[in-house]
Every structure is written in C-alpha cells, then in structure tokens.
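Technical note accompanying the year-one report. For the benefit of new consortium partners, we illustrate the data format agreed upon in the data management plan: each record pairs a sequence with a structure-token string. No post-processing was applied to the example shown here.
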Amino acid sequence: MIGGCRVCVVMPAYNAARTLERTVAELDRAVVDRVLVVDDASSDATAELARRLGLELRVHSRNRGYGANQKTCYAAALAGGEEIVVMVHPDYQYTPKLVPPMAAMIACGEYDLVLGSRILGKGALAGGMPLYKYVSNRFLTLAENLLLGQKLSEYHTGFRAFRREVLARLPLAENSDDFLFDNQILAQAFAAGLRVGELSCPTKYFAEASSIDFRSSLAYGFGVLGVGLQGFLHRVGLARPRFLAADGRRLAPEGETR
C-alpha cells in the first residue's frame, strides 16, 4: 500500500521462466499488495515457476498475443479491490524498483496514468537499445505527439501504472490483441482527457529480455502511425474510430459479464 492506496502488479508473461524470479524478487512487498501473472501459453516453465513462487496465476490455453494478455491482466485486476494497477514485464527489461515511485504519482492524486520512459535522460543506447529501435522510437513518438497533440517522451514503453478507474472506464476490449494495444490505450487516455505522467526508467536489453524482430517492428511501426492518424481524425472531429468511441466495449472484471 502507498498513500492509502493498495497496489496490484500485473505481469503479462510469455516464456519468462529465466527472468520471472529475479523480477519478482525486486518488487517492494511493503508497497505491492498483490502480484498477478498471466501466462500466454508459454512453451517453457513460466507457469510452473509462478506457482512455485506462490503468485496468483492465469494461464491462456493458447497463445493469444500481448494485447490479449493485458486484457486478461486488467480484467483480473479489476476483480480485486486495489486502487492502483502497475504493469511490470517479467522479462526484467524494466526495473521493478520503480514501482513505488510510479504508484506514488498515482496515489498523490496528480496523475491517472504513469509511464516509465526509457527516453527521458540519455541511457537508452547505453542500456543496449538497438540503434534502429531507438531511431524508430524517436520518429514514431514525434509523429504521435504531432497527431495526438501531446508531448510525451515515449509511447512504446511497457512499464505503466494506472488508477483502477482508468482500466474500468476506457474501451479496452476494442483494442488489438497484439502490440498495438499499448499505443491504442494511450490514444484512448488522451481522447478521454486523462492526466498522463512520465518517470525516467533505465534501459535494459539483454539476451533473456523479450523483443520483437525487425519485420514485426516494421509492421508495428505502420500500425502505430495508423493509430496516430485515427487519433488525429477523432481529435478534429472527422472520424469516430470504434476504439476511441465513448460507448466502446469495456473489460468486464473476472466473474462478471458486460
């Protein structure tokens, strides 16, 4: 608990057996009240390790994708009573030590959503981010800022903290089941007028950390530009994309239907 708010950490996992224990070990359990792992049909021992560590676990019967994994994470989180939900990748690419300050930015009442940015500061390349990923990150972020009328340092981080009402309010069920989910939820947050903050986060690229290949990165980049364009058209009143519609489908907490 922090600032009178309970904290749930969700971990969308896929083949994370080599890094899950190290990630969990660095969570501050004085702050984190609940840890939930969703295993997206890993081919390694991720689920078995999560059970051995005593973590709350959900397992997909088939691989459904990163976005679908997050949907399960957030639906399960909403079924609990925690006021703050933090997504931490179990591949140890983002340091769990920053969960308390990110949660505090929500608990203090100033922000609805907080991003751990690898671009604030100068450590991205020094931390091992491939040059082509760094360049594409900067280009896509610039394009998205212009299209969405914002000023973020990075749209592509997987380290995020949410006020629970954000996850209940946004039409997350309309989002992609793949990597575009991360961009769509930010476009939704801006369209809803939510307060988005950032915290500098060190970059960690190493053999065990998950990463998409160049071809997938290229497809992701074009998808991101599409999300930005739809956000722009929505912002100026020329289109009403379903994932940005106020009456779009929301996630139902586990055990409920909607």
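Partners are asked to follow this layout when depositing records. The chain has a mean pLDDT of 94.
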